[in-house]
Amino acid sequence: MQATSGNGNGNGADPAPRVGLRLRGLRKSFGPVRAVDGADLELHAGGTCALLGPSGCGKTTTLRLIAGLERPDAGEIVVGGRVVSSADRFVPAEQRRIGMVFQDYALFPHLDVAGNVGYGLGRKPDPGRIREALELVGLAGSQKRPVHELSGGQQQRVALARALAPSPDLVLLDEPFSNLDASLRDRLRQEVSQILRTAGVTALFVTHDQEEAMSIAETVAVMRDGRVEQAGTPEEVYLRPASRWMAAFLGDIEVLPGDAQDGRASCELGTLPAGDVSGACEVLVRPESVAIGVSGPASAARAEVVTRRFFGHDQLVGLRLRSGRVISSRRLGYPAWHPGDHVQAWIEGPVEVLPRENASSSDEQHVAVGHDDDVA
Amino acid sequence: MDAATAGRTFGRRLPSAARAFGMRRPPLVLLGLGLMVGLAAALPALYLVVAVLDDARGALDAVLTDRTVGLITRSLGLAAAVTAAAIAIAVPLAWLTVRSDLPGRRIWATLLTLPLVIPSYIGAYLFVSALGPRGALADLLGVEQLPSIYGFSGAFLVLTLFTYPLVLIPLRGALQRMDPSLEEAARVMGRSPRDVFRSVVLPQLAPAIGAGGVLVALYVLSDFGAVSIMRFNSFTHDIYIAYESGFGRTEAAALGMVLVLVMLVLFAAYARVRAARALHRVTPGAQRPAQPVALARWRWPALAFCAGVAAIALVLPVGVLLYWATKQISSGLELGALAANSWHSLLAAAAAALAASLGAIAVALLSVRYPSLVTRIVERVGYAGYALPGIVVALALVFFTTRVALPLYQTLAVLVFALAIHYLPLAVSPIGASLLQVPPRLEEAARGLGRSPIAVLRTITTPLVASGVLGGAALVFLHALKELPATLLLAPIGFDTLATDVWQQTSFGFYEASAIPALLLLLIAAPPLYLLSAKASVAS
After folding, report:
1. With contacts defined as CB-CB under 8 Å, which chain B residues touch A56?
2. Interface test with A, best of B189, B192, B287 (most A CBs within 10 A)
3. Cβ contact (<8 Å) for A93 and B191?
4. Cβ separation of B188 and A162 shorter than 8 Å?
5. pLDDT in tens, B383-402
6. Dist CA B287 CA A328 (whole Å)
7. What pLDDT was estimated at residue B336?
8. Domain B55-172+209-268+295-331 belongs to what architecture?
9. B187/A94 CB distance under 8 A
10. Domains of chain A as residue ranges with CATH
11. How far is CA A5 from CA A96, A97, A169, B334, B432, in A?
């Protein structure tokens, strides 16, 4: 602990923000299965990061490697400026100063709330610190309650208070909201994210829920096949996906073939900025960026409405373009469009242009996996 | 395994206990049958009270002596010592076979639970015949006398070696069910592995250790064979002596009463421990299997410990048994007597299993399908026979038949009756559990699909309940097969079983002659035992 704070002071002159967590080339195999296969990630101190990915992508193993519950085969882990795992070093879990919130909370059933929260504070925990931690999560005065009498949401907060009480350098949360029902989940997401920010602690949480990741984290790191495919702000990863798989994993996506020249890409729905891409390309467009109207700009394409699904707050309109390709447009719930309507369709909003991928079968499969997870 | 599930009630709490019957009235036939079973189960306890009250003065005189104090002290002392030793053996074994990287964990787990199937009197016989005067060891060493193993030390040794699995089994279950993230959470919070074991693991295991420990204590208190062969003056031994002496029947009943009271206290403790365990069940969910702890340099000492326990509790007795058996075979067998005794054992055990299953079906049906105050009382009373030691059940039935139903005295019917009511709860538990898996909704659905009630019974209920009934019957069969004191007291003249044969030959010191019936007993027990363990492994 002293060494850590010393490091922190030493880095004080450094203009770059202090490292909260850094993973370099992290690898872990279970028999023939490569669970984590060269994961890299960097998170500044005090940041909140969601580790997002389909099930089986290695995100929970990554979390357990960071916590010291598994021993990596290769790679380096730095927590709060301190190397906790590298080729010649392995700090055991109990010496890492990491707080962890388990998926099933793992509250000790034989201890009351205070006993749980104070467990990480040593044999004689300071009642004041327990009170502070409980106040932070909005459970002041619950010290003497047995944990099995608490509701799911309260248990979750006790687990969070327990993780935060020893003032850890990093808090890890493993699918923290998956055991809660939908309405409670939404509320607790906001509360937990607020609590983590108030505590000013670096936090990494694992989730397979795209919306959850994007709505409460400052940084989203998407994992695929044991690697971090892309990390960035929620806007970056959603609006500027690095690959077709990324785009499809984070939400609905339409892929239009195009042709790029001199920084402009032309496709069926018009001509768009293409960045550095040139030659055969793919235009990735989210349904909400496909606008339709009775009349449109000059570049608009003619299309026919073929399907419509109404969700109340919005509607998903299926359009057949002149080429026969069918794409979706997400519009507000009003005005209503009907199958058979002839409309103009154009792109209105951010798109991403990527060099054309060889639509290999394996890639298609991964897209499908992403969608499955989304549904689940 | 069986005893751990006994004592469970199926009836849910009633909305209003004031009403004697629940929402639905049970059919009269079923209710009548259930009440008869309840009455039968209550008979030994009731008649024990009657016999004591009959000569209350004599009973009081017999009990209010220094000897009773000595008996209580000795019996409780033995129970406490065996329980402590069983826990001391079972805790490391459970941890090693569940949570460590001990080579061959599964095989060790099986081997180390096997001593439970050796009846205590066979175990005692084998130890006496191995280490006692003129025993195998003395024989091999060519000496006449070894330090005596009779008395406390012998009873302690034998009972510990054959009862520690009663702690090991629930403890392994608790360790396997324990959420590994609890330990991980504790470690992440900065506690050393040893500290985590003390502050997190052990408190989780305490209920299982407590429950297993009470089972061991109850076993020791009600055990008759081992203490008698080891000539340790415990309650059951003195009850038998008083009974055999002919004039001390009131004394025997009074001593039996005291023993029952002592056991009831323990039983209540057991119920409390079980209730506490139910309270602390962890939330179910997908559980990550715990990572085995690397033993590293402790690997060889750990292996030596497991091998040592297996050697003393399993290999040594079986080896000694085979040693005597080969000696006996080479000197010729009395095949006629062996066949007759085997047949008697099979007959009594099978009849008891059948009777107990039929009674258990009635009790379980009532308590699962028609929960009410009456059916709950019937179910509770059904456990009465099990709460009494076998020798007390037998004693009460001797009193009952000699005074009320003399023509029945020492008939096979009374023996079967005693075995059936004594082990009734062993059948009620699995049958009730399997009935719970057939909610009336299932049958209603089948009826709704156009099947007649008979067809529903045949195609839905019976297949789903069959394995429970079979399991219950197998348990009763196993226990009745090896039952010793009830058979000694109640069997018709000349109706020797394998169990009484072992007992008699051993008490005369004919170790070779005991070996074959003991071996046959274990062989007959093997198939139903295999059936039960296969079921158990499927269930888990």
Report:
1. none
2. B189
3. no
4. no
5. 777 778 899 999 899 888 88
6. 40
7. 86
8. Orthogonal Bundle (1.10)
9. yes
10. 2-97+168-239 (3.40.50.300), 251-375 (2.40.50.140)
11. 14, 12, 10, 86, 62
